[in-house]
Amino acid sequence: MSSQILDQARKYEETASEKIEPKEKPAFHLVPPAGWMNDPNGFSIYQGRYHMFFQYYPYASHWNDMHWGHAVSDDLLHWDYLPCALAPDQDYDSFGVFSGSAVTLADGRQLLIYTGVRNDLAPGREKHQIQTQCVAIGDGADYQKYGFNPVIDGRMLPEGFSREDFRDPKILRKADGTYECLIANRAADRYGQILLFKSPDALHWEFVKVLVKNDGNYGFMWECPDFFELDGRQILLTSPQDMESTRDLEFHSGNGTLCVIGAYDDDRKDFQPEAYQTIDYGFDFYAPQTVQTPDGRRIMIGWMQNWDACAIRLPEAPWMGQMSIPRELSLQNGRLFQKPAREYEALKGAKTSYQNVEVKGEVSLAGLSGRTTDMEVTVRAKEGEDLYTKFSIHFAQNDRHLMSVSFRPHESVVKIDRKYSGSRRAVVHQRRCHVEGDPREICLRLIQDRYSVEIFINDGEKTMTSTLYTELDADGVSFVCDGTAVIDVEKYDLKVE
Ligand code: FRU
Q1: What's the mean pLDDT when you consider all of the chain?
Q2: Helices (H), 301-429
Q3: Ligand 1: which atom is nearest the Cα of residue 55?
Q4: Cα–Cα distance between 397 and 479 in angstroms, integer?
Q5: Residue 129 belongs to what domain range?
Q6: CA 223 to ligand 1 centroid distance, Å
């Protein structure tokens, strides 16, 4: 269970975490105790509590030898750290303990399945990675790597399937007590595919089939699959690399997120995709995982960051990487909707509201400032006047900095813009998405924590997520319209320490 590398990480994170001022961290988003965090891993319920593991390098705020960090929560918002769960301490995972998932075994123990990565240094060949799937079993705090790891390796793959891009196992326990696992892989034509494996005991695995393959329209490799039923359809979530932008504003270049909605025949293991959409249209959302709550809700948390824009955080930062708030998923009109999980509502404190305020030019209203707030703004066209061209909300604002989200009703396009939020890097600063419905009315809900904003458009029809590292006294809000708009505002200060 214990190794020198794991012990060292556990010791280090304890002291390093104390050195970070609470104000330097978000108030209600999970960040690493110290150092770097990427993907959520093993998001699950075990012994009555939510467990979140994560890709983790405790020693610096950049990606390096991957460990699994570990936190637990009763409400998905207040997280307690547990000691680092897994470290890269075996030959087969010496390059890193990459992403994976968790399941409760029939005997009550928790099994973690992850990708063990090692470098193949065979003489006379260029160094390359080998990715295999490995397991560790434990009691919710300490985990023992299985003596016969890896449990799934490249020898089980058909000819031509990549052994180098073969990762991020998502384990599922079936009603009959057997297990299935979805694993991301790259086919010989370089496009991503999701493979299905099966096992009687989560230790002995067999390749079943390619469940779904990227047809070339959605990047190259697909990472971090999740697969579940939602409102009568089957959902595959995955995060494609090397996406291209599409002119309908549905997909954006770089690392993206993809929700495939389809029909699934579990007996025949037949998944038929019906629709493809982005999961989050902002800059910073990747590799989400979901869990089903005891009352049947499907909750998703994503890494609130994106590989292509990591440079926006300066290297001296004491931590890097955050998780999104938990989001409750549903399907409406054949599309994925997201709302803040209902647990989140308990954070709402003092309320300020306004009705029917006319916005012409720039308007500020008393009581709306803050950096840990939830503000819902309903924007309507003014009866009897020409429809305005652009309405914007400026927030996280001071003399020098601001973030903005704007709506152009003639195009039905929402844009998020962070170019004036203190960024010192030439990374993507603007993203746009289309919204459905009557453009004469739109609802924009902004959930701000100290270093992020999550925007829910029209009650969860679309979301746009962004990190921001503006100084905390940049907390002003104003509304700007080039014609006349009429707004209602409902704003809550969030109850945070
Ligand atoms: C996705 C990812 C995974 C991999 C992990 C490594 O963000 O690239 O595919 O397992 O990060 O940290």
Answers
A1: 96
A2: none
A3: 12
A4: 11
A5: 4-340
A6: 7
